[in-house]
């Protein structure tokens, strides 16, 4: 065996050391942007492959281009809102029930796109994708900052990798409001961790009109105030911070109900928003009253039957409660765990689980920080590969349309 020349070994070692030094000197935000761009290229490739075999459907012709394919499903509702606004009279089905309509979708995201449409003259499709991508990049940058409150730089960057490659990350580049919601939510949680309460007011105001998060965030803020009060002996909670924290908690609760009140005021129907939301679950269980904390059991019975459905739901509740006390999740800190618990309780109270449940779980992104903590290179590569495979699975199951429409994203 011929030994490697010493000079070559030294040169190789020196080159590797130089690369490591250069990497360490690279600003964190540059690393995040690189991760984001690579992830979006991978996802775009998957989307284009699926679009190339997509048949004619209610939204597009056969083999749509990227922009058309990225603006199917609920993106059309946002498009309608941006162009025509909201109906003053709710549409009704043949049997007199409230039918699906634009009031189920909040105005902040389509309003941003509509402003850009007026300024640039471009149509909805490219601008909707552009706005989603901008907010997604902003969310990735803020997510790194958020994770640095509890994790080191390596784990924080890997958490961003998971955020960008997550199974539902295609939504970050579609005509949906999720990118904007996640950006605002990450910003709100970051301000909460830094206890900059007064800055939360404008963020919460817009966030509550982007996706339904106001009530869940109000609960998280209320629990935050209680925790700070109970621990004030070792973590001072001065009066000015008590007033600010309590005020934003109340404000978030008010904003959580604001869309319901506005829908009622415009349409003249007190339950316009909830009746509209119930229209989406009618194909599963028919038109029923909204009884808090029953939808998951109704869904469990629909999917698994009785009593197996109830057993599955109870098992999920117990499993999630135990998850919040695992060491990796505890390491994320009290406030992020309070958000996870609050949002889970909100979903459990009002949401009827079906295929869109995966998208509604996206605000639980802090859990990616727990997944990011192991340092094994093999583990980290395997999780990214798994996430990309799950992206493809979600696109096939929920986004692409093949015959019957039974799995909306």
From TrEMBL:
The chain crosses the membrane at residues 28-51, 127-144, 156-177, 197-223, 243-266, 301-326, 338-358, 378-401. Keywords: Endoplasmic reticulum, Glycosyltransferase, GPI-anchor biosynthesis, Membrane, Transferase, Transmembrane, Transmembrane helix. InterPro entries: PIG-V/Gpi18 (IPR007315). Pathway: Glycolipid biosynthesis; glycosylphosphatidylinositol-anchor biosynthesis. It is found in: Endoplasmic reticulum membrane. It is a multi-pass membrane protein. PANTHER family: GPI MANNOSYLTRANSFERASE 2 (PTHR12468). This is Mannosyltransferase PIG-V. It comes from Luethyella okanaganae.
């Amino acid at each position: 065996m011929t030994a490697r020349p010493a000079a070559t070994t030294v040169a190789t070692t020196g080159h590797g050391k130089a690369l490591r030094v250069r990497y360490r000197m690279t600003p964190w935000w540059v690393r995040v942007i690189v991760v984001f761009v690579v992830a979006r290229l991978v996802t775009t490739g998957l989307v284009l492959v699926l679009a190339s075999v997509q048949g004619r459907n209610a939204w597009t012709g056969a083999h749509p281009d990227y922009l058309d394919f990225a603006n199917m499903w609920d993106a059309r509702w946002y498009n309608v809102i941006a162009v025509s606004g909201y109906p003053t009279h709710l549409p009704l089905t043949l049997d007199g029930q409230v039918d699906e309509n634009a009031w189920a979708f909040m105005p902040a995201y389509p309003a941003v796109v509509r402003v850009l449409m007026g300024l640039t003259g471009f149509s909805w499709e490219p601008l909707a994708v552009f706005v989603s991508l901008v907010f997604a990049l902003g969310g990735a940058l803020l997510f790194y900052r958020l994770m640095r409150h509890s994790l080191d730089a390596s784990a924080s960057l890997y958490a961003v990798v998971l955020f960008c490659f997550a199974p539902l990350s295609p939504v970050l580049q579609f005509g949906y409001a999720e990118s904007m919601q996640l950006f605002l939510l990450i910003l709100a949680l970051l301000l909460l961790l830094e206890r900059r309460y007064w800055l939360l007011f404008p963020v919460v105001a817009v966030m509550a009109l982007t996706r339904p998060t106001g009530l869940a965030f109000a609960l998280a803020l209320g629990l935050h105030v209680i925790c700070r009060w109970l621990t004030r002996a070792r973590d001072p909670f001065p009066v000015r911070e008590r007033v600010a924290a309590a005020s934003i908690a109340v404000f978030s609760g008010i904003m959580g109900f604001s869309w319901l009140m506005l829908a009622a005021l415009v349409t003249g129907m007190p339950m316009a928003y909830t009746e509209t939301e119930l229209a989406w679950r009618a194909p599963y269980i028919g038109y029923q009253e909204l009884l808090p904390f029953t939808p998951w059991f109704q869904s469990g019975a629909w999917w698994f039957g009785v009593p197996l459905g109830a057993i599955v739901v109870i098992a999920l509740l117990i499993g999630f409660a135990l998850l919040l006390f695992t060491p990796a999740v505890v390491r994320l800190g009290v406030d992020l765990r309070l958000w996870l618990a609050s949002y889970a309780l909100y979903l459990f109270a009002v949401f009827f689980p079906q295929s869109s449940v995966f998208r509604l779980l996206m605000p639980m992104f802090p859990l990616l920080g727990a997944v990011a903590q192991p340092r094994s290179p093999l583990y980290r590569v395997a999780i990214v590969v798994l996430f990309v495979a799950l992206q493809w699975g979600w696109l096939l199951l929920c986004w692409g349309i093949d015959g019957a429409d039974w799995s909306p994203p």
